[in-house]
């Protein structure tokens, strides 16, 4: 059935976010079901509260059930949640925070000690000990850090630059097959924002004017270590995205092309007839996971789901999200020529997007993925 | 958007060179007249166009592709060279390594772009050496001699002061036009002439101090 590319497809994608509410429940049967369990009579407004309780109950167990957490996190941490909920959920799903509650405190302090050792071994060596290659990596990182600007003032602070410099440099040296690749500086920022929000007990949206000098140095040390380890865990599953020739990314671009051809052949034809190549616009989508396309609040929501998806989130599933995102703009794109499309896709009008719109994309991507998985031959 | 956009020629130009030599800054200065507001490392390619009246030959629309410079991206970046008829090969006059790497970039261009691609070597960031001459690591004469030996055009520039920015783009476009009409008329007059035409002369150098 899916082999018939329909114009109706793109129409449904352009629908307002609210219409996808029931589709969003797809991956998490039961979780977003509008609350017979929530004894209250007024359904929708209570939903986040029910979900918050479920997060609370999930964390309160002796050992967190990752399958349960996966379902909860997949459909997003509610706005109403305590800022620590997201940080904790991410750290658990990434395998950084131990699932056994009684081991969490010691587990974290052990990893933070380990990180301090790494800083000594890799970063605090005398500069003469560094190889040319290491110096080159460090130089590039130092150039890129000040121009990492996900819209928060504190990313311009020297103390924050130090944190990013150490984490990125150590990661690069410990992962020589990829080393530091531009764009990885973007990827550490959601961790820093979410973990800072958690420690300071503020919403990430309230951190825009934060001064780093207001943050105790002990907190900064913890955040640095936590961000380092979580970035490492995340990148461990997608190593071939950043190795020579970037085979992982090439594969994703190719797959995106196949999927779009299948779901909106008219759009596919329009792009290719105009000489547009998928690599031209989607390489950055793959390399930076749409971070350059969305404001941070949306990126964080996207990562709830990607982290919940574990190994496939930042690879396989992301391609479906990209496909849905591209097809979302089909009505506009189909009216444009090559030049207009290139310029449009360099700066999508997404600055005002809210996490709810990301949820629409995610829900559609989930449906798409299920359809393709139930009929894999369509892609062969 | 496209209405008044009339032109006689459409040329694809690519900006290549090591990371952080200032490719995106040069493009922004040329297209918008300003430096990027929130500069970030270029990932993949970025695209811009400008329609320019040539001194000779009518109006040309330049499709300019700004590429990522980091080593890891090279394999993929070269996929964007196809059908490019002109290239700005940019280095940083304060970083010798970025000039040494021009040899590798030139090889990539020769392997992946049009065989008769016109290449302009650009030593960027001269504003830095104007402030502090000791920062210069690539002498003007050295780069000029290298460009000459490879039959490439050459300029020094500064995206920060706008020095030579207009010239590097527009002299390149003019030269592409000249080469292409020359190839055509050569073909018309003498069928034995093949593509792969190279520049036989260098453009007049505009020394530091003469801003555009």
UniProtKB/TrEMBL annotation, chain A:
Annotated Low complexity bias: 1-44
InterPro entries, A to Z: Rab-GAP-TBC_dom (IPR000195), Rab-GAP_TBC_sf (IPR035969)
Record's signal peptide: none
Molecular function (Gene Ontology), one example: GTPase activator activity
PROSITE patterns assigned to the protein according to its UniProt record, in alphabetical order: TBC_RABGAP
SUPFAM superfamilies: Ypt/Rab-GAP domain of gyp1p
PANTHER family to which the protein is assigned, alphabetical: LD44506P, TBC1 DOMAIN FAMILY MEMBER GTPASE-ACTIVATING PROTEIN
Descriptive protein name: Rab-GAP TBC domain-containing protein
Taxonomic source organism: Vitrella brassicaformis (strain CCMP3155)
UniProtKB/TrEMBL annotation, chain B:
Annotated transmembrane regions: none
Listed SMART domains: RAB, RAN, RAS, RHO
One example GO MF annotation: GTP binding
UniProt GO cellular component terms: membrane
Entry's localization field: Membrane
Keywords: GTP-binding, Lipoprotein, Membrane, Nucleotide-binding, Prenylation
Keyword hit for Acetylation: no
InterPro entries in the cross-refs: P-loop_NTPase (IPR027417), Rab_GTPases_membrane_traffic (IPR050209), Small_GTP-bd (IPR005225), Small_GTPase (IPR001806)
Membrane topology listed for this record: Lipid-anchor
Family: Belongs to the small GTPase superfamily. Rab family.
Gene3D superfamilies: P-loop containing nucleotide triphosphate hydrolases
Stretches for region Disordered: 184-212
Protein's UniProt name: Uncharacterized protein
Record Pfam families: Ras (PF00071)
NCBIfam families in UniProt: small_GTP (TIGR00231)
